[in-house]
Amino acid sequence: VHFPGRGGMLSNLFGRPAAHVRAIDGVDLTVRRGEILAVVGESGSGKSTVGRVITKLVQPTGGKLVFDGRDMTSVEGLALRPYRHRVQMIFQDAYQALNPRHTIFDIVAEGVRSLHLVSGHEAIMQRVAKSLAAAGLNAPQDFFARFPHELSGGQRQRVVIAGALAVEPELIVADEPVSMLDVSIRAQILQVLIDLRTQRNMALLFITHDLPVAWSIADRIAVMYLGRIVEIGSADDITFNPKHPYTVALRDATPKVRPMINADPLPGLNGEVPSAARIPTGCRFHPRCPLAMDRCRQEEPPVVDVGPHHQSACWLAGTSQHS
Ligand code: SF4
Ligand code: MG
Q1: Which H helix or E strand runs over 52?
Q2: Edge-to-edge, what's the strand order for the sheet holding 220-225?
Q3: Is the confidence at residue 10, as pLDDT, over 90?
Q4: Pocket-testing residue among 283, 304, 322, ligand 1, by greatest number of atoms within 8 A of Cβ
Q5: How confident is the model at residue 16 (pLDDT cuts 50, 70, 90)?
Q6: DSSP one-letter string for 290-320
Q7: Residue 6 Cα distances to 21, 190, 296, angstroms
């Protein structure tokens, strides 16, 4: 997905032109087959919007979405069906995502039926059972006739994952899939996703506000701030060797990671995330950045290489002012 800087705008979901907000801007992301890419950011960073653009839940007014060599940017309606088959989205709130009046069987079978992927009740039953098992629900048949309210939060999220898996996608976009679950369940759900990547060579775009969760699951991490990617690199580099002051602040705010780092912490961040409707001039992080200089208030820093497969958008990139 590619959104040229200062160009692309996203139309508001409800189509009120006056409400246009530039939710993502200058974002250029590639997810490879078999790769887990985490997109990390606070609320308002635009990370969910990236997921919604990729899954075609919102239509951007600029930029480009390419999937497997095909430009999907303006594909709509029935022509989208094959794409809906190949790209699935999992949301944070499994309870919201599941129709309370539908059985687990009907929920998981929905995509298979509407996309006509297999025919005949027997084949659909097999596909549903296989998907529930792959999502980590043992004895899948026992869940067929049950309803969402009869399940635990962890089981419901597994049902959501099973629904996505049932259509055998090549890419899953997962928006905060574990953030509403108990800590004890989180690792199990993450393991399900990691196993799927290994077994099916599936790509996963994993959206989270939680840097340690991103590190635990992803090959690469992209850090977003106010609609831009400020740093991208391997999960280890972003977590243990961040170059952008914002990523450093995220790392320092993580009690488990901090003691593992042999570097001084930066002073804390100033203030709150500004509104996406009022993007600061220059480096959009400057009002909160403890290292901001005059130049940062005027000019937007380009994304530059700071190491192998590691890029950052900061005027201090390449200097050793922070580590
Ligand atoms: Fe901070 Fe300036 Fe770097 Fe932006 S460009 S992150 S304000 S030092
Ligand atoms: Mg969100």
Answers
A1: helix 47-54
A2: 87-90, 171-175, 203-208, 36-40, 220-225, 228-234, 310-312, 304-307
A3: no
A4: 283
A5: very low
A6: TT--HHHHHSPPPPEEEETTEEE--TTTTSS
A7: 12, 35, 17
pLDDT for 123-141, tens place per residue? 999 999 999 999 999 999 9
Query: Domain spans of the chain?
Result: 17-241
H/E segment holding residue 177: none
* pLDDT tens, position by position, 223-272: 999 989 999 999 999 999 999 999 999 888 876 655 555 566 666 677 77
Ligand closest to CA 266: 1
Instruction: Return the ligand 1 atom nearest residue 286 CA.
Output: 7
- Provide the residue type at 143 as one letter: F
Locus of tokens 């705008």: 9
CATH topology of domain 17-241: Rossmann fold (3.40.50)
Distance of CA 200 to the CA centre of its chain: 19
What's the whole-number average pLDDT of the chain?
85
The residue to which tokens 């962890």 are assigned? 154
Q: How far is the CA of 268 from the centre of ligand 1 (A)?
A: 14
Ligand 1 residue neighbourhood (C-beta within 6 Å)? 244-245, 283, 285-286, 289, 291-293, 296, 301, 314-316
* CA 45/CA 209 separation, integer angstroms: 9
Ligand nearest to the CA of 292: 1
In 246-262, which positions are buried (b, 16+ CB within 10 angstroms) versus exposed (e)? Answer: bbbbbbbebeebeeebe
- Which is more confident, 294 or 17? 294
Determine the average pLDDT of the residues in 33-47: 91
In the numeric block, the tokens 């097999």 are attached to 126
Whether 22 and 10 have beta carbons less than 8 Å apart is answered as yes
